[in-house]
Design goal:
By secondary structure, this protein is of the alpha+beta class. Helices cover 33% and strands 19% of the residues. It is built from 16 helices and 23 strands. Helix 1 packs across helix 3, helix 1 packs across helix 4 and helix 7 crosses helix 8. The N terminus is likely disordered.
């Protein structure tokens, strides 16, 4: 450790020396799979690695393709999973350029890792409070070093998650409480793959409930040295990190300045940093950093705890994130992936700024303004859009936000497969390809119909509808990755029937397989409704009901949700409850009393337009009733939940 000596050039891990290529083509891949699995059971790992490395890339693909059918129900299934891992390691693309950030380092306090010895002459050490030439300025800056003759073959993999908790004191009859805060985090080079603060109630004690991210900026590999401070000296590999607080002082000051502000904010950075040699894991260092912020000290220093122990695998949740984020590196050992986590409820729309909607002359400018107002960054696969150059225009659709001026619908969300083909709402279900990406597309009808230009809240409602679909599709991708990880011969749809999901979750994932989208669309329209409620006119204006294209956005979203809600089957009854309770969470958690009363007023108006004063003309009454009379049960359910008193 320390500066002074010139760093060695990185040396990639060397695979076992290949055995001679077979003299004849392989005709029995199932037989080869069983043979190699048996060798693994007999602890002949190096023999298997040499054999797999000697196969051609096409033969490795064929070998992996038969593993599920050959070993999925066999006593050698564990060895089949290990064999697949070996195949993927040797099948990974070669020629990746590793570009660590060079640095010099000094000072620091040594950490007693206790179990730091890996083998004779091979040890892991740690320091905190280090100073470095690349920005280590805080007391929590830390460095991890591996010392050993094979340091040139090692890599660091740092998996991280963050959380932010608002702590409120007891007040009157109210007990003290802690609330998880929702927040997005980005690596600057990976803004299309953000990660979010962990908010599941069990996240602090269950790593499977945390939202993990590989701490790197590379799209190719998850290892830390891609663009991060790593150096190799003679027989040493050192990484350094100085994590920024999970809540910055300016953000904290804003929260402390609000009414009903918390007493304190605790922001956390948590890492499990693995020493990796080829396709094997050797050691894990656990880092926990906590910042306790108060109104008087919104930028308080962090405190750090570090421990370490030998390890042989990463966790299933970490493997799932690597499989989505860097699928070429999906060869690291670990248990089966857990069920994916749902995203958080979308925060309500607070402001339609920036910009004067009527002054924006180009559609792409309006889409950019819409994305900003809707806070598109709350969902995965999307960049925080502004300015407009982050929007893909027209076909072919790209990962993230798209605008298609020729599309005949308001918007849609679909998958992009491993060949960059857009597959719409059908999730690609090829077992051996990379997980799909997601494209959110806004069409011209989200902004205009004929000569009618929609107000900004209409476009925001459409975008929030599609953002809900992004959440749903990302959840389906999580299950797809879990299926790909299971060594089974079952196709995705059949395998899904063997898994434990709630009725609604199952309907959502199955909807992307069989194109039965009733559940997906009901919840999408409901999200658009929730986004539009704040912008309802305070009084019912009969003139606004004459032309459906000029209806307030909330009414159009209410109608769309009602169409889907009414068509739901008995099997989908749970979806109705979920939609109604989404409205209730908004009305009781965020809406003002005035907004809630206004919403009730409008719902009553469309349920019986003839009772409005002044009374609408016959054509207007006929128009409203033609759309809303078939949805009478939906409207009754919505009205009942809106009128039910909220808990105090």
């Amino acid at each position: 450790m320390g500066g002074g000596s010139p760093p060695q050039a990185p040396t990639p891990p060397q695979p076992p020396k290949p055995s001679p290529a077979p003299s004849a083509p392989i005709s029995d891949f199932p037989g080869l799979a069983k043979k190699l699995a048996k060798q693994l059971k007999d602890k002949k790992d190096e023999d298997v690695r040499r054999a797999v490395s000697a196969l051609s890339p096409s033969d490795r693909v064929k070998l992996e393709a038969v593993l599920g059918a050959t070993l999925g129900k066999d006593r050698l299934k564990p060895q089949g999973i290990e064999l697949r891992r070996i195949i993927r390691f040797f099948q990974r693309p070669s020629g990746k350029t590793i570009t660590p950030t060079p640095f010099t380092m000094s000072g620091g306090t040594a950490v007693d890792l206790k179990n730091s010895k890996i083998a004779d002459g091979k040890v892991v050490s740690a320091k905190t409070g280090v100073k470095a030439s690349v920005g280590a300025k805080s007391k929590i800056a830390y460095a991890l070093t591996y010392t050993g003759s094979d340091a040139g073959e090692m890599k660091w993999l740092q998996m991280i998650w963050r959380d932010v908790t608002l702590n409120f004191p007891a007040s009157g009859k109210d007990k003290a409480r802690s609330v998880a805060f929702k927040k997005r985090f980005d690596h600057l080079a990976r803004q299309d793959m953000p990660y979010f603060a962990s908010t599941h109630p069990d996240h602090a004690k269950n790593g499977d409930k945390c939202r993990w991210q590989a701490d790197c900026v590379s799209v190719d590999e998850p290892f830390y040295e891609h663009g991060s401070p790593v150096k190799r000296l003679n027989g040493e590999l050192t990484m350094m990190d100085d994590p920024s607080p999970s809540m910055l002082a300016g953000e904290a000051s804003t929260i402390f300045g609000q009414a009903n502000a918390p007493e304190s904010i605790v922001a956390g950075f948590h890492a499990e940093t693995y020493l990796v040699h080829g396709l094997d894991v050797l050691y894990r260092v656990t880092i926990d950093i906590s910042w306790k912020l108060t109104k008087s000290a919104p930028g308080a220093e962090g405190t750090i705890k570090i421990s370490g122990a030998p390890a042989s695998e990463i966790t299933g949740a970490q493997r799932a994130r690597v499989a989505i984020e860097n699928p070429d590196t999906n060869f690291l050992p670990g248990p089966q992936m857990p069920a994916p986590l749902w995203g958080d409820d979308l925060d309500p729309i607070k402001d339609l700024a920036p910009g004067d909607w009527s002054s924006l002359t180009k559609d792409v400018e309006k889409v950019s303004s819409t994305a900003w107002a809707a806070n598109i960054g709350m969902v995965p696969y999307m960049k925080e859009v502004n300015p407009s150059d982050r929007i893909n225009l027209g076909k072919r659709y790209a990962k993230g936000l798209n605008y298609d001026g020729l599309m005949v619908v308001d918007g849609e969300t679909g998958f992009i497969d491993s060949t960059n083909k857009y597959t719409g709402a059908f999730i690609p279900t090829d077992r051996l390809t990379m997980p799909p990406n997601l494209a959110l597309v806004l069409g011209k009808p989200s902004l205009h119909v004929g000569k009618t230009d929609f107000p900004k809240e209409a476009a925001v409602g459409t975008l929030r509808h599609e953002m809900q679909h992004v959440q749903q599709a990302a959840y389906a991708i999580g299950w797809l990755v879990k299926w790909q990880d299971d060594l089974t011969a079952l196709n995705f749809e059949s395998w899904l029937k063997t898994q434990k999901l709630s009725t609604v979750d199952r309907l959502i994932v199955e909807g992307y397989i069989n194109n039965r989208l009733g559940t997906i669309e009901t919840l999408g329209w409901t999200e658009g409704l929730v986004a539009a409620i704040p912008f309802l006119p305070a009084a019912v204006d009969v003139s606004l009901l004459k032309v459906k294209e000029q209806w307030p956005t909330a009414l159009r979203e209410l109608r769309g949700a009602g169409d889907k809600y009414t068509a739901l089957t008995m099997r989908e009854a749970a979806v109705k409850s979920l939609a109604i309770h989404r409205i209730r969470r908004y009305l009781c958690g965020f809406a003002t009393n005035v907004q809630r009363d206004t919403f009730i007023l409008w719902v009553k108006a469309i349920m019986d337009p003839a009772k409005l004063t002044p009374e609408p003309d016959a054509e207007t009454i006929k128009l409203v009733k033609s759309f809303f009379d078939p949805q009478s049960q939906w409207l009754k359910d919505v009205l009942a939940i809106a009128q039910r008193p909220c808990p105090k």
